[in-house]
From TrEMBL:
Keywords: Cobalamin, Cobalt, Disulfide bond, DNA synthesis, Nucleotide-binding, Oxidoreductase. The keyword Oxidoreductase applies. Catalyzes the reduction of ribonucleotides to deoxyribonucleotides. May function to provide a pool of deoxyribonucleotide precursors for DNA repair during oxygen limitation and/or for immediate growth after restoration of oxygen. GO terms for molecular function: cobalamin binding; cobalt ion binding; nucleotide binding; ribonucleoside-diphosphate reductase activity, thioredoxin disulfide as acceptor. The lineage of its organism: Bacteria, Bacillati, Actinomycetota, Actinomycetes, Kitasatosporales. One of its GO terms (biological process) is DNA biosynthetic process. Its EC number is 1.17.4.1. Residues 48-138 form the Ribonucleotide reductase class II vitamin B12-dependent N-terminal domain. Belongs to the ribonucleoside diphosphate reductase class-2 family. Residues 1-11 have a biased composition (Low complexity). It comes from Streptomyces monashensis. Pfam families: Ribonuc_red_2_N (PF08471), Ribonuc_red_lgC (PF02867), TSCPD (PF12637). This is Vitamin B12-dependent ribonucleotide reductase. It comes from the Bacteria. It is an enzyme of class 1 (oxidoreductase).
Length: 970
């Protein structure tokens, strides 16, 4: 663990005043003395070419970028296109991840040294190397503005989340428009509370009626839409909050409902009202998330069925009484109809407020995770939880408590340093952020971690592990904040708020002590968290705290993809089968790697695991998976699908971790289209009872604008007919299907087509005969090497029989190929096969040759196996795939293409005719689209403005898996 050097704190300021102590001693976590983290990984060159799948146009292209070999294609694409600085094609353009990480970590190190954070230059170097290692290995990520701006000549804005304020004056309202616009221009988002503005039921000093906040929302909405269309690749992210006791609250609740009705009328009249459509801009209030801020007085009136007073803004007197239950019903009806407004629980939020003497918390950022004082900002970073799961591959697992705590300390230190050199969009935000130093450490991959450890997302065990990790993270962050206060002084506002801040720390510690321990995984984490909170209370009393806030749970959209996370923020897994891009181009669908880990944790054997994974790959779910116990089904429940997690399951997870989050949680509770208004009311009510700070709901298909637009009634009718036909086929298949778990051997007939191939590997000669079923598909393999009766010949015979029997019992050839390619032993080396020039062993060669002869292009391309012709085509065109014109030429020249062509031609020709008669299959471009294809549903997420692919939800925002664009502020 890192520790603070001894020395009295003398309250130096973050502005760069004298340090009051000797600084931090930094301990190594991952790095080796004398070895740079870059020298411990293998670097490869990648080409990044990103296209819009709708029209094939190239959105971004940069070839020859340098990344570690273990980085996924998607992560490489997103980091290169989003975070590399400099104009593409110029010498100033970054071309390596090394340059990007150096640009950031060297800036942090220099600022840390300048502001006396470190005890010595050796500690500063360790800090730099550890930070570089953690970023390089995707252990954590800063929020996007850090990657965009730090170390560049442009203003070094490091915050993603902003809260503004507006008063009841025209000057303040116009300042609001300007400040919000500048934040949008920089690609970030902002939120504010409009409740100080007089209602339309109150008088102006001149005697006329005030316009009310809803009218001023129109101008801000138009401004946000214009700035977005002026060059941004995502919508302007903004949050508008109104207190439930504001006299215009009913107008605020109904703003989007009325506009949604307008959209329906215009759509039926023939206007293009789809998301991104030409005419959607004619409706109002579409560029903001709306939330009602309710207090305990109102919620208790709802419970009791009493009245509730709406108060004048200037005097505070009640000018109208309303039925609380009826008003709550209107909030639920509006959310049911169009997903707005969300809800924020004012008293709960302010009960956990560390700085009440400096003002109440009245608003949040657009995604609802950052909640603090007006005119402030928050710098975010998120840890990849799967990097801390220790798994021996046989079911024995643990969470690496010690390393997790050390990384939290490292990241919190870096985040606090960033405030020393950061720039801010307005003077007020800069002054307040430097005075209160709000940080937002959080995490991603919680859903993947829970599944991998055999915990259902909606279970007591899952919630206990999530709560323990969250408590340890925030407790460790505040402990480091107290240690930093001893070195460089507490935040400026601490003295005024010391009692309140220490009271909130005690609340966190008390909640930790009362939490229920469930199993061998969460109990050690709770123990470490308890120790951390004891240190927080002790050190805070002595030193104070460097930061007024430590943690939030953000959507982690773009950065989650950059870290190759399976799940974002606090979200569960989207589905069990994912869409994965491949290095050589193209893509494939894979079963989540967390599924086998979960099955091992649950005690299944490898043979059972393979059967269950194969079932998931084919069906997309675990229902009726061979050998899987029904009580384990819940472990594999996801956000979408036949076994989707219930809405209250999402709320219970939020409640389980909220006591140890300084801010709040970015989360939208998805509800099925069949959900009722009463169910929305129940969620909003139960979230209040459970202590959640804020949430929103989204009912499927409640929006008119659909992501996949059908312009005419005929097209829509055709789609409905297709869906009905698919449903009938599914039902018919379910009735007719006979499930047989025992494999049945399918023997080859007496006469069978075959190919005999001679080969040489490293000077060793041999022959391979591969025989097929008449209806296609490899059925047996014979291998001939060395003299009859020799050990090698005997082993080859035995190996051939084993493989052949496996093929006849239904083991897919691609399974053998994936297992045996790249196996290393002698003889190895050059071959006489132009398609496989080098082989690492005879077995490696044999299965590469079989893949080329018998597997379809997409399958073997996913395995990295290509013919000489395909490799040449890739060098010339950048793609391994044949064009349509090439396919036509190859059919004519099939006889000359290879010796095996004649034998396969009789089979290939009739199969080609059958395939030609089939309609072109629908293609998926993201995991969200793949899930839709499997489940036969349409998720009404928006299409990405950059590349046209279907986005998926991340917190209260949407994220594009293809290019990393988000619809929010993360």
């Amino acid at each position: 663990m890192t520790e603070t050097a001894s020395g009295p704190a003398r309250g130096s300021r973050a502005k760069g005043g004298k340090a009051g102590a000797k600084g931090l001693h930094i301990e190594r976590i991952h790095t080796t003395p004398g070895v740079h983290p870059y020298d411990e990984v293998e670097w490869v060159s990648r080409d990044v070419v990103m296209t819009n799948w709708r029209d094939g146009s190239v959105n971004f292209e940069q070839r020859g970028v340098e990344f570690p070999d273990f980085w996924s294609v998607n992560a490489v694409n997103i980091v290169t296109s989003k975070y590399f600085r400099g104009a593409v094609g110029t010498p100033q353009r970054e071309v390596s991840l090394k340059q990007l990480i150096d640009r950031i970590v060297k800036t942090y190190r220099k600022a840390g040294e300048d502001h006396k954070y470190f005890a010595s230059s050796a500690d500063a170097e360790i800090f730099e190397h550890e930070l570089a290692y953690a970023l390089l290995h995707q252990i954590f990520s800063f929020n996007s503005p850090v990657w965009f701006n730090v170390g560049t000549p442009q203003p070094q804005q490091v915050s993603a989340c902003f809260i503004l304020s507006v008063d009841d004056s025209m000057e303040s309202i116009l300042d609001w428009y300007k400040e919000e616009g500048m934040i949008f221009k920089g690609g970030s988002g902002a939120g504010l509370n409009l409740s100080r503005i007089r209602s339309s039921k109150e008088l102006l000093s001149s005697g006329g009626n005030a316009s009310g906040p809803v009218s001023f929302m129109r101008g801000a909405d138009a401004s946000a839409g214009t700035i977005k269309s002026g060059g941004a690749t995502r919508r302007a992210a903004k949050m508008v909050v109104l207190d439930v006791d504001h006299p215009d609250i009913e107008d605020f609740i109904e703003t989007k409902v009325k506009e949604e009705e307008k959209i329906r009328v215009l759509r039926d009249a023939g206007f293009d009202m789809d998301l991104g459509g030409d005419d959607i801009a004619s409706v109002q209030y579409q560029n903001a998330n709306n939330s009602v801020r309710v207090n305990d007085e109102f919620m208790k009136a709802v419970e009791d069925g009493g009245n509730f007073g709406l108060r004048a803004r200037m005097t505070g007197e009640v000018i109208e009484e309303v039925d609380a239950k009826a008003l709550f019903r209107k909030i639920a009806e509006a959310a049911w109809a169009c997903a707005d407004p969300g809800i924020q629980y004012d008293d709960t939020i302010n009960t956990w407020h560390t700085c009440p003497e400096s003002g109440r918390i009245t608003a949040s950022n657009p995604c609802s995770e950052y909640m603090h004082l007006d005119n402030t900002s928050c710098n975010l970073a998120s840890l990849n939880l799967m990097k801390f799961l220790k798994d021996d591959g046989k079911g024995a697992q643990s969470f690496d408590v010690e390393r997790f705590a050390k990384v939290v300390e490292l990241v919190i230190t870096a985040m606090d340093i960033s405030i020393c050199f950061a720039d801010f969009p307005t003077q007020k935000i800069g002054e307040n952020t430097r005075a209160f130093r709000q940080l937002g450490i959080g995490y991603a991959n919680l859903g993947a971690l829970l599944m991998a450890t055999g915990h259902a997302y909606d279970s007591d065990g899952g919630r206990a592990l999530a709560g323990a990790i969250t408590s340890l993270m925030t407790g460790t962050a505040y402990r480091r904040s107290a240690e930093l206060a001893a070195v460089v002084g507490p935040y400026d506002g601490y003295a005024r708020n010391a009692d309140a801040h220490k009271r909130v720390m005690a609340q966190h510690a008390d909640a930790n002590g009362k939490a229920v321990r469930m199993d061998d995984l969460d109990t050690p984490v709770w123990a470490a968290a308890t120790e951390a909170w004891q240190d927080v209370v002790r050190l805070g009393e002595k030193n104070g705290f460097r930061n007024s806030q430590a943690s939030v749970l953000a959507p982690t959209g773009t950065i989650g993809l950059a870290m190759s996370c399976d799940t974002t923020g606090v979200e569960p897994d989207l589905a069990l089968v994912k869409f994965k891009k491949l290095v050589g181009g193209g893509s494939m669908q894979i079963v989540n790697g967390t599924v086998p880990q979960a099955l091992r944790r649950l005690g299944y054997q490898e043979e059972q695991i393979e059967a269950i994974v194969a079932h998931i790959a084919e069906n997309g779910n675990v229902i009726d998976a061979p050998g899987l116990k029904q009580e384990h089904y819940e472990v594999f429940d996801c956000a979408m699908g036949e076994r989707a997690i219930s809405p209250m399951g999402h709320v219970r997870m939020m409640a389980a971790i909220q006591p140890w989050i300084s801010g709040a949680i970015s989360k939208t509770v998805n509800m099925p289209e069949t959900a009722t208004v009463e169910e929305v009311e129940e969620i909003y009510y139960e979230a209040w009872k459970l202590g959640v700070k804020a949430l929103a709901i989204y009912r499927d298909n409640c929006k008119v604008g659909q992501p996949l637009s059908a312009k005419t009634k005929d097209v829509k009718d055709a789609e409905k007919a297709e869906i009905t036909e698919k449903a009938e086929d599914t039902i018919r298949a379910a009735v007719e299907k006979v499930v047989e778990y025992r494999p049945v051997r399918k023997r080859l007939p007496k006469g069978r087509p075959g190919i005999t191939t001679s080969f040489t590997v490293g000077g060793a000669e041999g022959y391979m005969t591969a025989n097929s079923y008449p209806d296609d598909g490899l059925g047996e393999v014979f291998l001939k090497m060395s003299k009859q009766g020799s050990t090698l010949a005997g082993m080859m015979d035995a190996f051939s029989i084993a493989v052949s029997v496996g093929l006849q019992y239904g083991v897919p050839l691609e399974t053998y190929v994936s297992k045996f390619t790249n196996m290393r032993f002698e003889p190895a080396g050059m071959t006489d096969d132009p398609d496989v020039r080098m082989a690492q062993s005879i077995v490696d060669y044999i299965f590469r040759r079989l893949a080329l002869d018998f597997l379809p292009f997409e399958t073997r391309s996913a395995l990295g196996i290509h013919s000489a012709e395909e490799r040449q085509r890739h060098l010339e065109t950048g793609s391994y795939e044949q064009s349509i014109e090439d396919d036509e030429v190859d059919v004519e020249g099939l006889a000359q293409s290879a010796p095996r062509a004649q034998e396969l031609k009789a089979v290939a020709a009739p199969r080609a005719e059958v395939e030609a008669a089939k309609p072109a299959p629908k293609q998926a471009h993201t995991s969200a689209e793949l899930v839709e294809m499997q489940l036969g549903i349409q998720a009404d997420a928006p299409l990405c403005f950059s590349c046209g692919t279907k986005m998926q939800r991340a917190g209260s925002c949407y994220i594009c898996e293809g290019c990393g664009s988000t619809s929010g502020c993360s």
